[in-house]
């Protein structure tokens, strides 16, 4: 991976997200060329651009400074940046740097997400960053067209140059969309979408919100774990140890789930991000050579911050199925509350739970202990805990941009280790294609039926259940035939004043 070899064999690509956070003086070679200067050319451009926007030198088309950013993207062009943004919002330095600025994300093609992303935003003070590696993803492109209309309807066509920028590897399509080539922030096909948060995908919107200097700390944290992964002996190499533990739990003990349980609200979007990193990478049916795997690969990830999860699904984890858990705790919290009269601070209280849960899973509670507590015999089976349930705990000294970069890199490399051991390609994602193709067919038929004012029939060649479902959907619409497009935004309906 680090040598720039094309280990993503099915797409003929190198896998070098580590280059996106390389230090200026590192050398990383792809096809005989050092790519680190290219990485820094884009990072320097991001610094320059974000400084201009944040200082108010860059203004919107009506002369107002830009205060809000809407980042439009989905999958890897959304989850990583959302994770980092959520992690930094309440960190004191980052929070102060963001002042009154707002960063929103628009991922889903659902118009409800449009309404929520745009709620309360003044177009004159808003910049839209379209993030798409391919610039062909259907959801992102419709959302990009939607926001272009939202801007130009009120501010005129000139708004695009001042209020829309893009992050993509596909410069030609971005230009065709109408975005000024100067306002394109590039990256490369050797950065996988789900591994792209350290490229312009994350660095541009997050630098606009927090400033480049803070985001550079995030890159340094990721780079620190990259170096550790590349150089530390296996018996003290964190991604290797974590990856081996996962393979042991999944393939040897037969526990295919993993719960990611940060005792830190700022890490509430870690699990959704790692779901993509892990499940899109290692959820494969064949090995690197295309042969059926003789075992189930991948793990099913889910998670919620502690202590919320304790009051929800921990019941199953303690007494039902065995689910290996990752507990993540922080020594010094981003925020502090300590009330008079309480015996511990609020963060200590949170961490007491962090320590308690791992113990409860490991040691459980036996019938003997329950009897000693005078629990009635008939309740003893219900109140017993088997113990011997695996978990691991990671504790970080604090959670600032640097540690956020460390956690990101730790999980990315752990997933790669698992994929290497399972012998599969962790860097392609052919499994997402079929649904996209079928959605295109449905889109075409939906257009035809609603234009021709007719229902789906057997000639449309859907299976009977899909045909029935689509027709039931069409019956429920106010009008079958399409009304004239109105360019009305859900946000407009929510906020008629603007
Ligand atoms: O960045 P984009 O090209 O728009 O891709 C966004 C997402 O789309 C696909 O469905 C892939 O499965 C993801 O890996 C990718 O992150």
UniProtKB/TrEMBL annotation:
GO terms for cellular component: cytosol. GO terms for biological process: gluconeogenesis; glucose 6-phosphate metabolic process; glycolytic process. It catalyses: alpha-D-glucose 6-phosphate = beta-D-fructose 6-phosphate. Keywords: Cytoplasm, Gluconeogenesis, Glycolysis, Isomerase. Its EC number is 5.3.1.9. InterPro entries: G6P_Isomerase, G6P_Isomerase_C, Phosphoglucose_isomerase_CS, SIS_dom_sf, SIS_PGI_1, SIS_PGI_2. Pfam families: PGI. Pathway: Carbohydrate degradation; glycolysis; D-glyceraldehyde 3-phosphate and glycerone phosphate from D-glucose: step 2/4. It is an enzyme of class 5 (isomerase). One of its GO terms (molecular function) is glucose-6-phosphate isomerase activity. It comes from the Eukaryota. HAMAP family: G6P_isomerase. PANTHER family: GLUCOSE-6-PHOSPHATE ISOMERASE (PTHR11469:SF1). Belongs to the GPI family. This is Glucose-6-phosphate isomerase. The lineage of its organism: Eukaryota, Viridiplantae, Chlorophyta, core chlorophytes, Ulvophyceae.
